[in-house]
Automatic annotation (TrEMBL):
<feature type="transmembrane region" description="Helical">
    <location>
        <begin position="140"/>
        <end position="162"/>
    </location>
</feature>
<dbReference type="InterPro" id="IPR018383">
    <property type="entry name" value="UPF0324_pro"/>
</dbReference>
<keyword id="KW-1133">Transmembrane helix</keyword>
<feature type="transmembrane region" description="Helical">
    <location>
        <begin position="273"/>
        <end position="292"/>
    </location>
</feature>
<comment type="similarity">
    <text>Belongs to the UPF0324 family.</text>
</comment>
<feature type="transmembrane region" description="Helical">
    <location>
        <begin position="304"/>
        <end position="325"/>
    </location>
</feature>
<feature type="transmembrane region" description="Helical">
    <location>
        <begin position="110"/>
        <end position="128"/>
    </location>
</feature>
<dbReference type="GO" id="GO:0005886">
    <property type="term" value="C:plasma membrane"/>
</dbReference>
<keyword id="KW-1003">Cell membrane</keyword>
<feature type="transmembrane region" description="Helical">
    <location>
        <begin position="86"/>
        <end position="104"/>
    </location>
</feature>
<feature type="transmembrane region" description="Helical">
    <location>
        <begin position="21"/>
        <end position="42"/>
    </location>
</feature>
<feature type="transmembrane region" description="Helical">
    <location>
        <begin position="168"/>
        <end position="190"/>
    </location>
</feature>
<protein>
    <recommendedName>
        <fullName>Sulfate exporter family transporter</fullName>
    </recommendedName>
</protein>
<feature type="transmembrane region" description="Helical">
    <location>
        <begin position="48"/>
        <end position="65"/>
    </location>
</feature>
<feature type="transmembrane region" description="Helical">
    <location>
        <begin position="332"/>
        <end position="351"/>
    </location>
</feature>
<keyword id="KW-0472">Membrane</keyword>
<feature type="transmembrane region" description="Helical">
    <location>
        <begin position="231"/>
        <end position="252"/>
    </location>
</feature>
Length: 357
């Protein structure tokens, strides 16, 4: 192997003189991001809600571009940097959007129920995916996205478990489709299941993937449903930190891609088991909870995190061969659909069992 190859892959330690080599790939990802943000802006103007978020548009646009254009060598370093390092910074910054105060005030029963729902949903989703023959890492991605916060959870878990970009793209693509269907179909549960507005808010918070989608699903019902749904959703998002740490501990024991046997345990340093960006996420969430992060800073930082995530999703899309995605499409669709139905069932049992609302 030539001496040049390792230097290209060691992006975190790229020397200052090599920084311009990242520019071509970064510019491509930024161009896709700009287009995706524009599409979301048009959606919001026409409908009031981003039913298909910029993050989803970016990865689909990246995949579409990849089908007609294979990035050359000069673009690859920037695309790889966007897919990994940019994403890690985005996950870290998301910590500023989490405050523990409102979570504690919601009461122990609801908190325990949400935590239990996430754990059961991850376990059940993983089992469904594996039963359908999906690889272990892809099963984890689908399970995490289904149980916590859809695309953001998939994006956060992916680098921890070393998931392949095509698996990330497939998981996000099909989760995104069902996320939109949930927004459109969930209000039907209000009359069908005989739910109160409070109960409907809990159900939306437990099952809808993204915070904007929770708003889209609850605003037409009532202000109470929106308030409850948003709170429950934020508690659910808070589970992302512990879940990612847990998968970081599990990752060394996962079988290699394509292998049937288990991989032997590997000795890893602390920062391999608990990645720096998860520590950063938890640190910022703690600072926010202690009131050390000014409120005026929270919204701009959260928006920046969102934009960086869109950039990284554009990069992931550019790394996907749509022919590979098509081969796994049917199984992933069944896995995500089955996982979502299980999540709905668990959530309804929780609402009835705890007598919420």
């Amino acid at each position: 192997m030539s001496a040049k190859a390792p230097a290209k892959e060691a992006l975190p330690g790229t020397a200052a003189g090599e920084a311009p080599s990242l520019l071509p790939g970064l510019l491509v990802c930024l161009a896709i991001t700009a287009a995706a943000v524009a599409v979301q802006a048009v959606e919001e103007h026409l409908t009031g809600h981003p039913y298909v978020e910029a993050l989803v548009v970016a990865i689909l646009a990246g995949i579409a571009l990849r089908t007609v254009w294979v990035p050359g060598e000069r673009y690859r370093a920037g695309i790889a940097f966007s897919a990994k390092q940019v994403l890690e910074v985005a996950v870290t910054l998301l910590g500023t959007s989490i405050s523990l105060g409102a979570i504690v005030a919601s009461g122990p029963a609801l908190l325990i129920g949400i935590v239990g729902t996430v754990i059961l949903a991850i376990t059940a989703s993983y089992g469904i995916c594996r039963a359908l023959g999906l690889p272990a890492r892809m099963a984890i991605l689908v399970a995490s996205g289904n149980a916590i916060c859809g695309n953001s959870a998939i994006a956060a878990v992916a680098p921890v478990i070393g998931a392949d970009s095509k698996d990330v793209a497939a998981s996000i693509a099909f989760t995104a489709v069902l996320g939109v269907l949930m927004v459109l179909g969930l209000p039907l549960f209000l009359p069908l299941a005989g739910l109160s507005e409070h109960q409907y808010g809990v159900l939306a918070g437990l099952t809808v993937y993204a915070v904007p989608q929770v708003l889209a699903a609850t605003v037409p019902i009532s202000l109470l449903a929106t308030q409850v749904g948003t709170l429950v959703k934020l508690v659910r998002v808070l589970m992302l930190g512990p879940v990612v740490v847990a998968f970081a501990l599990i990752a060394p024991h996962l079988p290699p891609e394509g292998a049937t046997g288990k991989a032997g345990p590997r000795r890893l340093g602390f920062f391999k088991l608990v990645p720096w960006f998860i520590l950063g996420f938890l640190a910022l969430a703690t600072l926010r909870s202690l009131g050390l992060v000014p409120e005026a800073v929270v919204q701009p930082v959260t928006r920046l995190a969102g934009l960086l995530t869109v950039v990284s999703m554009a990069a992931l899309g550019l790394g996907v061969d749509v022919r590979v995605l098509a081969r796994v499409g049917a199984r992933v669709t069944l896995a995500v659909t089955g996982s979502l139905l299980v999540l709905l069932a668990i959530s309804l049992v929780l609402i009835r069992g705890l007598g919420l609302g």
